[in-house]
Structures are given as structure tokens and as C-alpha cells.
Amino acid sequence: MIGIIGAMPIEVEGLKSRLQNSQTENLAGLQFSRGMLSGVECVVAHCNPGKVNAALCTQLMITHYQPRLVINSGVAGGIGAGIHIGDLVISTAVVQHDMDTSPLGDKRGYLSGIGLIEIPASEKLVQLLGRTATEVYKGAVHTGVIATGDQFICDSAKLHELGRDFGALACEMEGAAVGQVCHVNNVDFVVLRTISDNADDDAKMDYTTFAPIAAQRGIDLLCRILPELS
Ligand code: ADE
Question: Which of 53, 55, 82, 123 has its CA 20 to 30 Å from the CA of residue 32?
Fold first, then answer.
């Protein structure tokens, strides 16, 4: 079983509508739909935006469905001159950019309890997805750090900070929460994001225009990639 988590309806409805023999269950107010996607047994969940929603959803998914790997897919803001709307970013690692105990002497993003800043994604998954995406995705494919926080980033100064402090290529609001929960449960994970905006002063307008298109491109890609993961 492969687990797929998306935060918004545009990131999950296109997957749920392609599920065959699907059964839906509600847990803690979240919908989990299980069935066959591209011939692969999957459970697709809609977690809602933000780290707490994503963490809750991921733990429920792991506890109730025991997925052997979890993919967090959706849209993201691009960081840096080389990342464009429509590009794909695959996480080598995820960070929580709004986790900050630096006044107490820690580095920014340090996660007490697990003792890490970067939570590594599954190398095997990154390689496999990177290879397949490069062959089939109609757009640039990047692999690197994805930064997560409970904020929609639409500010050039902030996005430069995320690039400088974390080396991040993209920002979003769930990936590192999914990653942390998978990490402590020893479940492989990867974050797969299509760029909907550049997290700058135009981000709101770009997001409104491009998020549905970017989300659909991510869904189409995921459906093509899934058989490679089984
Ligand atoms: N998801 C898509 N664009 C985003 C942005 N600019 N900030 C946070 N999450 C996003």
C-alpha cells in the first residue's frame, strides 16, 4: 500500500476520482480513500493546509493503513532564479523553517526530540522519481531541500532567507510535518511538488492563476510514476 497526502481539494480530488474500487473512511474528521490507482493499491488523504493537519493525517494513515511509503504531493512556491512556475521539485530532505529556538542557542529549524534540521527523504524514492520524472515530465525537474512552515510565503525578503538559511528550492506548508511523522515511524517518504508561484510579491496572483494547473500536472505525473513504485 502506498500513501498519498495532499492538503487541498485541487491536490487530491483528481487522484480520488481515478481510484478504482474505492472505499472512503473518516478518521478525526479527515477523509481517507483507499483503492487502486494506476494498478497500485493506494490510500489517498486530504489533510488540509498546515503542519498540524499534515502531522495528524500522516500518523492516522500510518497507524490505520500501514503504508510502506508515503508521498506528499501538491503545489509549492519556487525559491531562486532557477525555479519556474510549472517546474517539479522532488525533496531530498525537508526542513521546518518556522521552527526556531535560536534564542536558546539552537540553529534555526532544529527539531528537538529527533535532533535534526533536515529530515532526509528516501534516497531510493528520490532517485526513482527523479529518473522517471525526467523522462516523462514536460517541464524542468529539480531535486533538493523543501522548506515547510505555517505561512503562505509572498515576500521576496522571506523567500531569499529560506534559500540562504536552508538552501531550499521550494516552500510549502505540509511536507516536513509528513516527513517528521514518517521518520519517527520508520516509513519511507518523499515530497513531490509542482511550482505554482515564486513566493514573491506576485505570489497571490500567480497562485490563484496557476495552482489548479500545477496541481493537475503533479497528479498526472504521479499516476504515471506509481507503477514504477510497486
Ligand atoms: N504553496 C504554494 N505556494 C506557496 C507559497 N508561496 N507559500 C507557501 N505554500 C505554498
Answer: 123
Our answer to whether residue 172 is catalytic in this structure is no
Residue linked to cell 480520488: 16
pLDDT digits (tens, 9 = 90+) for 49-68: 999 999 999 999 999 999 99
Q: Per the residue annotation, which of 118, 197, 200, 206 is the catalytic one?
A: 197
Amino acid identity at 213: I
- Asked if 84 contacts 138 with a C-beta cutoff of 8 angstroms, the reply is no
Question: What global pTM score does this model have?
Answer: 0.97
11 is catalytic: yes
β-bridge partners, 23: 34
Distance CA 171, CA 95 (A): 10
Report the alpha-carbon distance of residue 167 to residue 153 in Å, rounded.
Answer: 16
Q: How far is the CA of 138 from the centre of ligand 1 (A)?
A: 21
Homologous superfamily, domain 2-225? Nucleoside phosphorylase domain (3.40.50.1580)
From the CA of 171, how far away is ligand 1's center (Å)? 6
